[in-house]
Amino acid sequence: MAQKIVIVGGVAGGANIASQLRRNDQNSDITLFDKDEHIAFSTCGMPYYIGGEVEKRSHLLVNSEKFADKFDINLQTNAEVIKIDRENKQVTYRDSSGEHKTPYDKLVLAPGASAIKPDFDGYNEKRVFTLHTIPDMDAIQEFIQTHQPKTCAIIGAGFVGMELVENLQALSIDCTIIDRSKQVMKLVDKDMAAMIEDHITSKGTHLLLNEELNSFSNNGSTLHLGSGKSVQADMTIMAAGIRPNKKLAEDSGLKIGKTGAIKVNNFMQTNDPDIYAIGDVIETNDFLTGTPRHVALAGPAHRQAIIAAGHMQGNKIEYSGVQGSAIFKVFDLTVGSTGLNAAVLDHLDIEYKTVTHEALSHAGYYPGAEKICIKILFDAKTGLLYGAQVIGREGADKRLAVLATAMKGRMTVHTLTELELAYAPPYSSPKDPVNVIGYKATSKLES
Fold this sequence. Notes:
The chain has about 450 residues and is of the alpha/beta class. Helix content is about 25%, strand content about 30%. It has twelve helices and 26 strands.
């Protein structure tokens, strides 16, 4: 049966569900609203365009007209949905010609999240930036080309901060990272974060932890910190995290979860069964513990889009929860994590043990072998894997992939010893580091 389906927001969630719906349904009327110009783009690629690794801006963008034509979508860009009338099943949107209303049978909320942009005294928008959208990227690029800054302060040591510092320093911009936490990348444990900290400082990055930005002065070029220190910077990047764009949902009476994102069930439905939500705006449950999590990653958003599209078309496949597998590059290191880290397990009062193993990425006698460090967290009695973290110059990505897959299969550390992983001197060792850390972990299990 043909339906009128309205989607709010594009990028990984909204654009994906639009295409998925059309692949299996040639008759329904699908309208997608996005408040910006671009329906979809690679958020993760933006630091590399700024640094020159990605040469063409167009490589990060999906052509809106081609997308609309290919999937027969009524695409409305530069059009913001500002109200949901759940009783009459219609939305109000605003574009250049004013406010309009359109009805829906099913509504999908995929408005994403926005970069946190605190209002500090002395804040100067001409030299203080965020990096979350294409206009953000363009503004940074234009400032660099026009003003040729020599110094940059990065507020936040998460994904954006870690990926930007490498690319800015490639442009001969001296960088200072400022974070109020005790470590960089709270995604990993403190001992693993220490390796990242040592690496970035060895590359000339200035790192100030346990420091908080209080204000700006001198037209935004002087940053005043909580400790009383000050930092001079020609430009500042606010990389302090994101917040889900939940206002539209809140205003229409949809439930918000404990994490501050929209609460959905395993079919991506909100408390209104005709309204779905996916992507960075939602709260889902952890794959292992069932506890609420807000994970803003492209992979889960794509899976959520498939689940929601299928459910609208009569399929009853449930979303099994989120692992939060993530990976990033910082200078010469690859850093990856999956599952839960020590801080989360402590917060949940879950007993666990950890094992860390350092090895070479492949056979030591074959040229190019690099050190790799793996850490796993597991149930003290059963050996069930709770989380894993991997850092290295080579081979870290494939070890993370193996461990993420093992977690998805609810494997134990015993199983890690039995995995038959391919070996040849350029790629691994007869006993892969994943096998070895499994042996080390089994020796620590409680009898």
